[in-house]
Specification:
The protein has helices at residues 17-21, 23-26, 33-48, 86-92, 115-121, 181-194, 218-227, 277-296, 308-312, 339-359, 361-381, 419-428, 458-467, 492-508, 510-514, 540-552, 572-580, 598-606, 611-625; strands spanning 54-59, 65-69, 123-132, 135-142, 145-155, 162-169, 199-204, 209-213, 231-243, 247-258, 263-267, 270-271, 315-323, 412-417, 434-439, 483-487, 518-521, 526-530, 533-537, 559-563, 587-589. With 632 residues, the protein is α+β, with helices and mostly antiparallel strands. It has 3 domains: 16-215, Histidine kinase-like ATPase, C-terminal domain (Heat Shock Protein 90, 2-Layer Sandwich), CATH 3.30.565; 218-383, Ribosomal Protein S5, domain 2; 408-523 and 590-617, Rossmann fold, CATH 3.40.50.670. The strands form 4 sheets. It has an 8-stranded mixed sheet. A 5-stranded mixed sheet has the order 9-10-13-11-12, sandwiched between helices. Helix 8 runs parallel beside helix 10 (339-359). The protein is globular. The structure holds adenosine-5'-triphosphate. The site of adenosine-5'-triphosphate has 22 residues, from helix 3 and helix 5.
């Protein structure tokens, strides 16, 4: 007899249980560094808000880590609704925080009210000591549960305030229980660089080493320290600073002639190793200003057009953005998603760099010359794609709207679900480098079809012709586009279509995937309007997160939620902004490595005889399939 499946089987995780059950959703579980980062970020937020100027990080002999700041101290009074102290709420409740509105912190790395509770949940012990109101308070926890009440253990001077959190990471949640000292040192130092006037100290009791950093004019000195002894243009980094009411940007950059450029970006002092919209904005701002400079002074040789990579590959930069309301790709905050930030940074950088170029014409021309050389190298290396219809060889499919650019690497082919969405995409695209081919309905499931036979399907045939390569081929010399982007609706039908296309590429155009040419575009499912602000959400979870924030911030205005039933419902401007424009879209790159589970997962998803297994998988994990993907 099959087991009954009733409402009683639906579990609701309470308190910190969700974190212990799925630690990977809340932190990076390779080592406990991200826990340290959460605690340090809270202290840094106090410094950003102007209440702390010294943060000490101590790695103890017993493997625990302390973070001490001289901020306001966590609130110790009783929480009006929870009836327990502020400290206890902070450490034991998810989604409890003082940063949802901008009243206590203007710019903060903390957003979700989750960070330090995650640290508590994943630590075998945690001790918090607070100096506030002339008293010294302490409270302890084990495995996230309190082991002693908040109590006064001494007195301090009235003006002495601050928080110390000491935690012992629970090794069972991490691949390695040890902190990576190098990464931690780097992080601590970066905080000092990015927050002028903040002293950061790092001590390691195992070695007796103690290091301290203080930068009054952080970015430029830091960049030069990192780069020496490379030859650079200009010798003194270009610096920029601009602050609005809800956004601020600081950067230092230069071009490296020999040596490896460093590329670091931060949002509210949190490192974003995967970049995001702020970095895209910096790149396009630089490119636009230099293009304008070259055009105005007629510096470009015939046939050379500057591309983003020409200016970018050798650019060393430190970019620090502060935003009142940043949107990240997840709790580890490695990539910024806030779309408006791309336009903000691009605008600031373009204007500032233009002014600089015109004030330093000689150096400007040297930079332009160097970047033009990079473009010429690229053009020599790139193979040309003949964009006109070829007379010998098969004609391109009639429904393909091709792009005009000849450099293969720069171009993109969007394979789009449905004719109407295809039409919108054609209006939304940048026709110089984006080609669009609409696909009608679901393509054939080619997972179990011989490569020699897939061309019998008209759709597959058209895709192969558009790409310029044959199924099963190992040679990409005839490839016509640098990126192939699968674009389907954000619903389950769309996910099915995207899966069928992924199967086609993994099975029959494997080299294309292995060399990183295939991407899945991620259009949003919802648009949320409050007053003049527009948010886009990829899925229900993201929508809920946005609604929670709107409620917590008590944003005025009627909330209007639009669910896009399909891509065709978005107007071309929305489609461009959310899905196609390089600065603001999210693409997920398909990758293949030796021994990865791609083939077995695809087989489970698509093989005819594995349908019973598929059913079980759909019941257990189907809901995760749309939400766990991380943008590349
Ligand atoms: N060192 C500190 N000094 C003062 N207040 C603190 C300190 N650490 C935490 N807090 C308070 O506790 C709240 C909850 O912290 P927590 O780390 O859980 O979430 P967060 O920083 O708001 O958001 P995120 O989950 O994105 O890190 C903070 O919003 C802040 O109000």
């Amino acid at each position: 007899m099959t087991k009954q499946y009733n409402a009683a089987d639906i579990e609701i995780l309470t308190g910190l249980e969700p974190v212990r059950k799925r630690p990977g959703m809340y932190t990076n579980t390779s080592n406990p560094n991200h826990l340290a980062q959460e605690v340090i970020d809270n202290s840094v937020d106090e410094a950003l808000a102007g209440y702390a100027n010294h943060i000490e990080v101590i790695l103890h002999l017993d493997g625990s880590l302390s973070v001490r700041d001289n901020g306001r101290g966590m609130p110790v009074d009783l929480h009006p609704e929870e009836g327990i102290s502020g400290v206890e709420v902070i450490l034991t409740r998810l989604h409890a925080g003082g940063k949802f509105s901008n009243q206590n912190y203007q710019f903060a790395g903390g957003l979700h009210g989750v960070g330090v509770s995650v640290v508590n949940a994943l630590s075998s012990r945690l001790e918090v000591t607070i100096k506030r109101n002339g008293m010294l308070y302490q409270m302890s926890f084990a495995q996230g549960e309190k082991t002693s009440e908040l109590k006064v253990i001494g007195t301090v001077g009235q003006r002495h305030t601050g928080t110390t959190v000491r935690f012992w990471p629970n090794p069972s949640y991490f691949d390695s229980p040890h902190f990576s000292i190098a990464a931690l040192t780097y992080l601590v130092r970066a905080k000092a660089v990015l927050c002028a006037g903040l002293t950061m100290t790092f001590s390691d009791e195992n070695t007796g080493d103690q290091q301290q950093w203080f930068y009054q004019d952080g970015l430029a000195t830091y960049l030069l320290e990192q780069l020496s002894p490379a030859t650079a243009l200009p010798e003194v980094p270009l610096m920029g600073h601009f602050a609005g009411t809800t956004e601020a940007v600081d950067y230092a950059l230069l071009w490296i002639i020999d040596g490896k450029p460093i590329a670091e970006s931060y949002v509210n002092l949190i490192p974003t190793p995967q970049g995001g919209t702020h970095v895209n904005g910096l790149r396009s701002g630089l490119l636009e200003a230099l293009r304008e400079f070259c055009d105005y002074r007629h510096l470009l040789p015939r046939g050379v057009k500057l591309a983003a990579e020409d200016i970018w590959e050798h650019c060393a930069y430190v970019l620090s953005v502060k935003l009142a309301d940043p949107q990240f790709a997840g709790q580890t905050k490695e990539r910024l998603n806030s779309r408006a930030c791309a336009t903000f940074v691009a605008g600031v950088v373009r204007d500032a760099f233009s002014v600089w170029l015109n004030q330093h014409v000689e150096m400007g021309e040297q930079i332009a010359e160097w970047v033009i050389q990079q473009a010429q190298k690229r053009l020599r290396a790139d193979k040309k794609v003949i964009r006109k219809k070829v007379t010998n060889g098969p004609a391109l499919p009639g429904k393909l709207a091709d792009c005009t650019l000849q450099e293969m690497k720069q171009t993109e082919l969007f394979l789009v679900e449905g004719d109407s969405a295809g039409g919108s995409c054609k209006q939304a695209r940048d026709r110089t480098f984006q080609a669009v081919m609409p696909l009608r309905g679901k393509i054939l499931n080619t997972w179990e079809i011989e490569t020699s036979e897939v061309l019998a399907s008209q759709e597959v045939h058209d895709i192969a012709i558009a790409l310029g390569i044959d199924p099963g081929t190992d040679s990409l010399t005839e490839l016509r586009y640098g990126k192939v982007c699968i674009l389907a609706d954000a619903d389950s039908d769309g996910a099915h279509i995207a899966t069928l296309l992924c199967a086609l590429f993994v099975k029959h155009f494997r080299k294309l995937v292995a060399e990183g040419h295939v991407y899945v575009a991620t259009p949003p499912l919802y648009r949320i309007d409050v007053g003049n602000t527009v948010y886009y959400a990829l899925n229900d979870e993201e929508k809920q997160g946005i609604l929670d924030r709107i409620a917590a911030e008590k944003k005025p205005g009627f909330i209007h939620i639009q669910r896009f039933k399909g891509l065709g419902e978005m107007n071309p401007l929305q489609l461009r902004e959310t899905t196609m424009a390089r600065e603001t879209r999210r693409l997920i790159q398909l990758t293949l490595t030796d021994n990865d589970p791609t083939d077995s997962i695809m087989d489970m998803l698509l093989a005819k005889k594995r349908s019973p297994e598929r059913k079980i998988w759909l019941e257990q994990k189907g809901n995760l399939a749309m939400t766990t993907i991380q943008p590349a």
